[in-house]
Amino acid sequence: MSKRATTSQLDTERTDSSIIRIPPHHFIHVLDQNTNIARVEIGPLTYIRQDNERVLFNPTRMTMIPPRHYCVILNPVVRDDEGHVQFDTAGQAKLRHADLEIRLAQDPFPLYPGEEIQKDVTPLQIVYPDTALRLQALLDFEEEDGDKRVAGDEWLFEGPGTYIPRKEVMVLETIKATVIRENQAIRLRARKEGVDRSGVRRVTGEEWQVCKVGAYLPGAHEEVIDIVNAFILTDKKALHVRALRPFRDAGGRDRRTGEEWLVTLADREAHIPSVAEEVVGVVDVTTLSSRQYCVILDPVGPDGKPQLGQKRVVKGERSFFLRPGEHLENGIQDVYVLSEEEGLVLRAVEAFADTEAQEEDDEEEQEKRGKRAGVQRRPGDRWMLRGPMEYVPPATVEVLLRQQAIPLDENEGIYVRDIKTGKVRAVIGHTYMLTQDEELWEKELPPNVEVLLTSSRDPLSGRSEREQGLVGGPRDKTRVVSYRVPHNAAVQVYDYREKKARVVFGPDLVMLGPDEQFTVLSLSGDKPKRANVIKAICLLLGPDFCTDIITIETADHARLQLQLSYNWHFDIKNRSDPAQATALFSVPDFVGDACKAIASRIRGAVASVQFDDFHKNSNRIICSAVFGFDEKLAVRSSLRFGQNGLVISSVDIQSVEPVDQRTRDALQKSVQLAIEITTNSQEAAARHEAERLEQEARGRLERQRITDQAEAERARKELLELEALSAAVESTGAAKAEAQSRAEAARIQGEAAVSEAKLKAEAQRIEAEAELERLSKARNQELNYKKEIDHLEVEKQQKLADIESQRFKQLVDAIGSGTLTEMARAGPELQVKLLQALGLKSTLITDGSSPINLFTTANGLLGAIKSTLCGFSLLAPRTAAFIQHESAAWNIQSGLALEKVIADLTTPKGTSLLYRLKTNQAFLELCVCNMALNTDANAPTAAPSVGEEEEQQQTEQGTNPQPNGDLGHAPISSQPVKTEQVSPPASESTSAPEGPTQLDSLPKEHLTVIDENMEISNGVCSVAVDTSPPASSRSSPPRQQHTKQSHAHANGHARLGSRSGSMSYAGSPRPSLTRQPSATTEGTGDGPKPNDYLVLAILACFCPVWPINIVGLTFSVMSRYSLQQGNVDGARRLGRNAKILSIVSVVGGVLLITAAIIINWGFILKS
Question: From residue 875, how far is each of 418, 774, 892, 932, 989 by CA, in Å?
Fold first, then answer.
């Protein structure tokens, strides 16, 4: 905040200060508070603010528009035909409010009060080749070529070119050319009625195509809809096309709306659909092999129209395209190849004569009779063809199904139903093929039977399991149902049609007929028994057991729960007897019935017995109750159920548990008492046995202790003997062992040293060999590398030399030896002729700031060589940049001959500077022409005295310092002068004994020097030729300065003043062109001073457009001379001509230089 406040304060102080220094190319707006009118003040200027004036803003830089740029000004000022700003009666600049002005490249200009920059400086839009701008007129106007545009008109600005914007025109879009390649087209649509580029009249919305290969730039009223690619047609692809409207196709046929057709390779190789065509799709070729066929629905007839509702069979080998409207029925189908075990069931769709059928007679009859002439088939007839054969059904035959013989084992079968009679039968044990009137029949079974048949549980091993087990896959219902009856089991099958049952005993295989079903057994299971727990197909005949839990009550009301297990089996005397076999399945749940009967007998027997008696005699009571007594009052061995032959052979009592708490407590007390008695007796016996064992153990321990002491004494004795022996051995063997160990260590150490020395020698040898090999390989690789590098360098230099020689040869051939000779001679010859025509002996031109010693130079310059220029330098630091170059051969200041310079221009580096050298040559001619004007003056101007010259120089240095810090420019020339020339001051001169006497007879010449660093009007200063010593050359000649106020400048803004300086010496043949203060020139200050455009003319001389720029410079000098003579109208007319010629020269020079650069780069890139 503080920094911003400080900046604002500084700006306020600057605008409120009384003295405001306006730098060059800056301006301010000053408001007169009395009249409320703002005006523009332009720098460089030191502006003194009046009390009634206020500066609106700090000095602001002018708007600079570089070449090829523009800006848009809002509310521009009004200008007259000559470009001067118009002011109203109050002195305020007139504005075109709400109007726009597009300003192109020009000198920097200020903004007048009210003007605004709507669009900043922007580069001009370059329209490249094959590109255009679609423009729209916003206002009615007339173009420079005379075309009248009405608001709303649209047109194209086609490239290449630079688009100059106008305020009346708006750029809608940039249109790029569409490149049309081979087998491509672009589809166009007309935005409005007009004529296309082909000259065809188009209406709004009309579409057409352009197929010409190349770039197509659509017109202003055309739009590109799409790029249409051609469809490449081959022998495998065709194009299905539909007409959108009536037209004539590429083949010359008239097409109607909606008509469809195929375009194939026979018509053309590539097809680009027109705007009246629609591509329905790409049709692939239909190829049939020798084993394939197809049926075409709605085939196209010979007249080209589809035959709706018809069919056509096409057999292979063949390739064809489906025409529009045709389609295949079931696609491409294989020919039916039937083997001996295969057949086809056919049905006639239409009536026809069948020639494929054969009589099913004996082979001998077939040989005799052969094939029949044909069997008449009616619609709906069914028949069957058997193999082996190949068959392609005609269009009137429908293939219902393909039959194949079903191989059957002796234990396999299928169910077959006659579709005419409906009779079902089972075919078992042989291979069978269904006829045309037969079909496979599916046999349905109850769900529980399906589960039992598909279950993986074994009826024998898994009989105690209650889960059904894993269920297999679905059953083939057309196959005969079979069941393998296990050993010692029986299965009952019931035939519902015959109302009979049959029993099959295992092991055997049961196969059901079409009307047979299994009898499913539903048996009781679990403990206690529950009904319908076990489902089974086969009945196990035993022996087996079953377990049941029953509850009984004794006479003293003790409720007990018994778990009993019964052993059972079926007793069948004769299995072949159908009556006995059927009796097995007479009781549906034989397990439940047997368990209930036995339980009732046990309950009746126990109900009359006390609990204690039952507890003691439970087995006898239960067995007698179940089996009963025989005639001898003995318990029977089994219980037989006569209805189905079930026999119970034994009963096992597995557990007896009381049901009520009282009975359980009494039983527990009795059991505890018995346990306690048993425990006490066992405890006393164990105690006695423990005491006996303890006494025996103590005796054994005492005896063992005595034995151990004797053994210890014996071991102590042996220990003492061994200690004595070891001491003796130790004393005698220590020295011997030490000596042996030392000898062994020395031997080992010596062997190790020898081995180490050998290994080190071997290692050094290996290292030396490896290093030698490495160095050898490194040297070889280095030598090879050097050889390759030298070889590549030699090839590179050879190729570069060849390329350079070829390029130089092509360059010389392109330019031509004659052209080079003429170019080398043109400049020097022209200079020599001009100098001869003017009577000049020699000329020297410098930048005006570097001193030159003329003592030794004059002798070389005099006696000019007519064919060359002896020496020249550039005019200013900026001008020197045109001819400076990297090569020392281009140092023009060293005095090289012009022929040598032009010869150097033939090199690649010098070719691009040829135009610049010609520019400087033209500038020399300009200087010579201006010098000729100075030499023709009639009235000489008296030279000022030495004191006046010094006073004037001090005044110039104090009031008008140079931008670069130099105090002035010294005139640098070398020409003979007369004795009347004013000598320099004694304080600044050096001794020159032979100067005045040797040059008295030489004529005096004038030379005009143009310097860009001088701050005089248009940079022109007329100086006298001087051959004085260097000291006098370094002194500034006398100049006269004149300052004059002007109201307007050439670009339309105010100009404070201009300075023009000249100096001349007595004896001049004509007066100087310097403007002298006279009554005539002072009297013309009321109107705008005419501009001579001398600076623009001098700049135009740097462009290679001769002699147009020379003529423009001549008109500019003549304009200035006319103004000095008082002829204002003549000066304005000559200045306008100089302006036009200079602009033409600048534009032409820029174009020529650009073309030269492009051509030069083209040659470089091509080389």
Answer: 125, 68, 12, 19, 26
Higher pLDDT, 616 or 907: 616
Q: Which two tokens stand for residue 891?
A: 């140092």
| Residue 921: half-sphere exposure toward Cβ, Cα within 13 Å | 27
Question: What percentage of the chain exceeds 90 in pLDDT?
Answer: 34
515 closest CA partner among 498, 538, 490: 498
1098 alpha carbon, distance to own chain's centre:
56
Q: Which residues pair with 402 in a beta bridge?
A: 344
pLDDT tens digits for range 800-848 = 989 988 888 888 888 877 787 777 777 667 767 766 776 655 555 555 5
**CB–CB of 27/1039 below 8 Å?**
no
For 868, residues 6+ apart whose C-beta sits below 8 A from its C-beta are: 828, 897, 898, 899
Inform me whether the pLDDT recorded for 1061 exceeds 80: no
pLDDT band at 1092 (very low <50, low <70, confident <90, very high): confident
CB 595 within 8 A of CB 546: yes
List the alpha helices (DSSP H) in 816-895: 817-838, 857-861, 877-880
d(CA 795, CA 801): 10
Neighbours of 181 (CB within 10 A): 11
Radius of gyration of the chain (CA): 67
Nearest to 342 by CA among 394, 300, 284, 405: 405
In this prediction the pTM is: 0.42
Give, as one character, the DSSP assignment of residue 629.
Answer: B
Length of the chain as a residue count: 1167
C-alpha to C-alpha distance for 436 and 401, rounded to whole angstroms: 10
Using CA atoms, how far apart are residues 248 and 259, in angstroms rounded to an integer?
12
CA–CA separation, 31 vs 41, rounded Å? 11
Least confident of 563-567, 572-576, 1034-1038: 1034-1038
Tally: H helices and E strands in the chain = 21, 61
| Residue ranges in 897-1026 assigned as alpha helix (H) | 898-904, 908-911, 914-935, 946-959, 995-998
Q: Which of 510, 485, 592 is nearest to 546 (CA)?
A: 592
How many CA within 13 A on the CB side of residue 1012?
A: 11
Distance, CA of 906 to CA of 107 (rounded, Å): 37
Q: What DSSP string describes 1093-1137?
A: -HHHHHHHHTSS-TTHHHHHHHHHHHHHHHHHHT-HHHHHHHHHH
Distance between CA atoms of residues 131 and 17, nearest Å: 56
**CB of 983 within 8 A of CB of 938?**
no
Distance CA 420, CA 382 (A): 12
Q: What H or E segment, with its residue span, contains residue 401?
A: strand 397-404
If residue 103 lies in a helix (H) or strand (E), which one and from where to where? strand 100-103
pLDDT digits (tens, 9 = 90+) for 881-913: 333 333 333 333 333 344 444 444 444 444 334
Residues 6+ apart with CB under 8 A from 16: 55
Peptide bond into 543 cis (omega under 30): yes
Which pLDDT score, from 0 to 100, does residue 699 have?
87
- Residue 661 main-chain phi, psi, to 5 deg: -75, -35
In a 3-state reduction of DSSP, which class is residue 505?
strand
Distances (CA, A) of 763 to 753, 757, 769, 772, 776: 15, 10, 10, 14, 20
Task: Write phi, then psi, for 312 (nearest 5 degrees).
Answer: -145, 130
Q: Read off the pLDDT of each residue in 618-645 and give the average, rounded to a whole number.
A: 89
User: In 3D, which of 898, 922, 920 has the Cα closest to residue 823?
Assistant: 898
Type of residue found at 1108: I
Give whole-number Cα distances, 345 to 106, 342, 462, 562, in Å.
101, 10, 48, 71
